[in-house]
Structure formats: C-alpha cells, structure tokens
Design brief:
- The chain is an alpha+beta fold and about 250 residues long.
- Strands 1, 2, 3, 4, 5, 6 and 7 form a 7-stranded mixed beta sheet that branches.
- Strand 6 and strand 7 form a beta hairpin.
- The protein starts with a helix and ends in a 19-residue tail after the last strand.
- The C terminus is likely disordered.
- It binds adenosine-5'-diphosphate.
Length: about 250
C-alpha cells in the first residue's frame, strides 16, 4: 500500500510538471521547426543540408517526447465498457504482428469461458502495445511472445473476480535493480532517443485507475512475465467489431 501511494504521488508530481512544461516546449519546437524549413527553402549546400536534416530529426524526437508527456499528463478519464479480452486481442493481432516484426512468434492462448472485464478499450490497447514493444526490444527483435488469458479469483483478495492477461517474453529479463524502478516515470535503460521511460509508468497508472493489479516476474537472462488483473464485468461485451462507428469520445 505504501509503495502504491509513493508511486501515485510520484505520478501526480510528474504529471503536473509535465503538463506545465510540455506546452511551452512544443511552442519552442514549432519555432525551431519553421525556421529550419525556411532555411531549407533558402537553398543550402550539401554539408549544411546534412546538418539541417539532423536538426530536423532532433526536433522531431523532441516533439514526440513532448506529445508523450502531454498524453501522460492529461490522464484522460477512463471510459470503461464491458470487454471480452479474447476479442480485443484478436482485433489487435495484425497490429501486434506488425509492431513485433516477423522474427517474433506470437502465441495467443485464451480461455474458452473467459469473463468480460470492465475496462477502457483504447487505453488497454495502448498498454498492451507498449508492453509488446518492450518485449520486442528485450528480445532483440527475435523470440517468442506468449499472451495468455484466464479467469482469476485471487485468494480472498478484496479485488474479487478478475481476468488475468499475461505476457511472457523470451527476452533478456531484468535484474532486481531494474525491476525495482520499472514503473518510475522517465526510468529507461534504452539508448537516448530510443526510450522515454514513460511506457510502464503509464501502464501502471492505467491498471491502478481501472481497479486492477499488475505483477511482474523477471530474472536477468530468463525472460519476463507481466500479469495484469482487471476486474470482472457482469455486463455483456459488444460483439467483436460492432463497436466501430459508435464509439463515443469524451469532451475532455
Ligand atoms: P522505455 O521502454 O521507454 O525504456 P518503459 O517504462 O516502458 O520505458 O520501461 C522501462 C524499462 O524497463 C526499460 O527501459 C527496460 O529496461 C525495462 N523493461 C520493460 N519491459 C521489459 C521487458 N519485457 N523485458 C526486459 N526489460 C523490460
């Protein structure tokens, strides 16, 4: 509980900082970007063109980071709906395959009588994609990602009936010191410009906000299993595919 509180406070502080900074930062980047475009229009020699191109790439990285910061800070209100995770994953299959590349084998293992969960579908899709990309990076682009679904009734936990989504990768795993910091905003072991360190803290915030739990098992050199538990819904999920076109977007 203390750990959850510490994490929530950290998220809150970083969220406030982020929303304050990201807007101004974006304006600055806009100015740099339009000036770079003007210089390109003026016509430059090849040496300058190469330097301009790397400046443009840096500006793009900066604006990607700041939009991730904004998304992180904005913390859009959840719109939970009864969802069948088997259907959701089936819909995501080609997206996941593209994100992981063809040297990563994806194994989907769903339960036949899976309960529905009460969850914001878009944000869950983002979380799954985030974790899949981490898995791909941990596997060096080659390996196996197993995604499992099962009904879970945690032993006497107040959370009650839940559905467990597990993702097991055959990647490099994590030593305890990385595992201890994985949910910290901005904690990354990836090369500068590659990781933002916001992925898993967003996943954590989303799962907690959804009334769920997240558990990670990992050992250096032995791969990683992430389990997300989401509360059961007693409502009926929409038929797969039928939600297209009638999804409601909140105003803020
Ligand atoms: P980022 O992906 O930008 O680094 P994350 O918050 O998503 O940020 O992840 C933080 C760190 O946790 C990663 O840099 C990596 O060291 C570690 N990590 C996350 N997922 C995995 C995984 N599946 N296997 C090994 N390490 C992981």
């Amino acid at each position: 509980v203390e750990e959850a509180l510490r994490q929530a406070q950290k998220m809150e502080a970083v969220g406030q900082l982020a929303s304050g900074v990201a807007h101004d930062f974006n304006n600055v980047l806009q100015i740099i970007s339009s000036n770079l475009q003007l210089m390109e229009l003026d016509g430059v020699n090849s040496l300058l063109a190469a330097r301009l191109a790397s400046a443009v790439a840096a500006v793009e990285r900066g604006s990607k980071l700041s939009s991730q910061l904004l998304a992180f800070a904005r913390r859009q209100p959840l719109q939970p709906v009864p969802t069948h995770l088997g259907d959701l994953l089936a819909e995501m299959e080609s997206l996941l395959a593209r994100a992981l590349g063809d040297r990563v084998e994806i194994a989907l293992e769903g339960a036949a009588d899976l309960w529905n969960v009460e969850v914001d579908r878009n944000q869950l899709e983002n979380a799954i994609l985030n974790m899949a990309i981490n898995a791909r990076d941990a596997m060096g682009g080659e390996g196996r990602l197993r995604i499992g679904l099962s009904n879970a009734r945690p032993g006497g936990a107040p959370g009650g009936e839940q559905v467990c989504l597990s993702m097991t990768d055959s990647g490099c795993g994590m030593p305890p010191e990385v595992l201890a910091k994985i949910f910290d905003p901005f904690y990354t072991t990836k090369a500068p410009g590659k990781g933002t360190g916001l992925g898993m803290s967003m996943v954590y915030g989303f799962v907690k906000q959804s009334g769920g739990e997240i558990r990670i098992e990992s050992r250096a050199g032995q791969g990683t299993t992430i389990r997300i538990y989401l509360p059961r819904s007693h409502g009926a999920a929409l038929q797969a595919g039928s939600s297209a076109g009638i999804s409601v977007h909140g105003a803020g």
